[in-house]
Specification:
The strands form 4 sheets. The chain has a 7-stranded mixed sheet with strand order 2-17-16-14-11-10-9. Strands 3-4-5-7-6 form a 5-stranded mixed beta barrel. The chain has a 3-stranded mixed sheet with strand order 12-13-15. Helix content is 15%, strand content 46%. The longest helix is centred in the C-terminal third of the chain and has 15 residues. It has 3 helices and 18 strands. It is of the alpha+beta class and 252 residues long. The chain has 2 domains: 166 residues, Trna Endonuclease, Chain: A, domain 1; 77 residues, OB fold (Dihydrolipoamide Acetyltransferase, E2P) (Beta Barrel), CATH 2.40.50.580.
């Protein structure tokens, strides 16, 4: 692989807790009838009957949500829900991997508040969920007269030490990249923040084999000056832990 950008991986805040996400049960996946549902046999703290569980993640998660794999669950906060449980994490090689994108906002806000990314360390104003073009991007940051448009993606797939996004074809993700390119064309700064939840990853790359259209647009975005920051986290004792920023490697 060639083509690398990196901020290094030696950080004073490495190992810092980011967010506690309480879980209520551990179970074994029985089946996944569709993208947003799975059936889980609850085995801890006590053995219960199979439960229908909501999967709050747009990916395929084929190496995480499959029959026989261990998962962590959280009771749904709303009694009006069709499913009483949410999927929080799955087991990969004995380590828990967060697979619930509902927490991405709080994690990325922690990154911004703690100034983990040097490129964004002088930001004065953080505004979430702002419309740009035909999309709603995750953050608009302001530093004096400069605007920084930020889109956040979660990454749960890794192969041969490389974190890969996406793990399912994403027209929406491609459109977000196109908006960031447009932002650069209009003189703004633009950033992709990749939240990586795999401990076996040592670098990041777009998943060209699975989604060549996204990958081609990713390359265009980087060439236009869009900054890419892959940030690695672990999930230990129900707590998200910041690890480091990873380098970007890309096949040419």
């Amino acid at each position: 692989m060639s083509g690398q950008t990196s901020e290094g991986n030696d950080y004073p805040l490495s190992g810092s807790p980011v967010l506690n996400i309480g879980t209520d049960a551990e179970g074994i996946v029985v089946e996944r009838p569709n993208r947003f549902l799975c059936v889980v046999d609850i085995v801890k703290p006590e053995k219960l009957r199979s439960e229908l569980v909501h999967v709050h993640d747009p990916g395929r998660l084929v190496d995480i949500v499959y029959p026989g794999n261990r998962v962590l669950l959280r009771k749904a906060s709303s009694v009006k829900r069709k499913t009483a449980w949410d999927l929080i994490a799955g087991d990969i090689k004995g380590e828990w991997v967060l697979v619930n994108s509902a927490w991405h906002r709080k994690i990325s806000e922690w990154v911004l508040n703690k100034k983990i990314i040097p490129f964004l360390s002088d930001i004065g104003t953080v505004i979430p969920e702002q419309k740009f073009g035909d999309s709603r991007l995750d953050f608009l940051l302001r530093e004096n007269e400069r605007n920084f448009w930020v889109e956040v993606k979660g990454c749960t797939l890794a192969m041969d030490g490389v974190a890969l996004f996406p793990d399912a074809p994403t027209v929406r993700g491609k459109r977000h990249l196109e908006e960031l390119i447009k932002a650069r064309d209009e003189g703004h700064e633009a950033v992709i923040m990749i939240l990586i939840f795999r401990q076996d990853a040592h670098s990041f790359a777009p998943n060209g084999e699975l989604d060549p259209d996204f990958t081609m647009t990713f390359r265009k975005a980087v060439d236009s000056g869009v900054k890419v920051f892959p940030i690695q986290f672990s999930f230990e004792n129900n707590t998200i832990i910041f690890q480091s920023l990873l380098p970007v490697f890309e096949n040419k």
